[in-house]
Amino acid sequence: MSFVKVQGVVISARNINDSDKIITLLSDKLGKIDIVANGCRKPKSRFMASVQMFCYGEYVLTTGKNLHTLKESNILESFQGIILNLDKVAYGSYFLELIDNLIEKDMKNVHLLALTLKTLYILLHGDISLLPLLRVTFDFKAISLAGYMPQVFRCVNCGDSNGPYVFSAASGGILCKKCVDTKELTLTAQELNLLQTLKNIKLEDLHNLNVSSVLVMNIQNMISFYIRNYIEREFKSLQLLKVLS
Question: What functional role does this protein have (predicted)?
Answer without folding.
Answer: Involved in DNA repair and RecF pathway recombination.
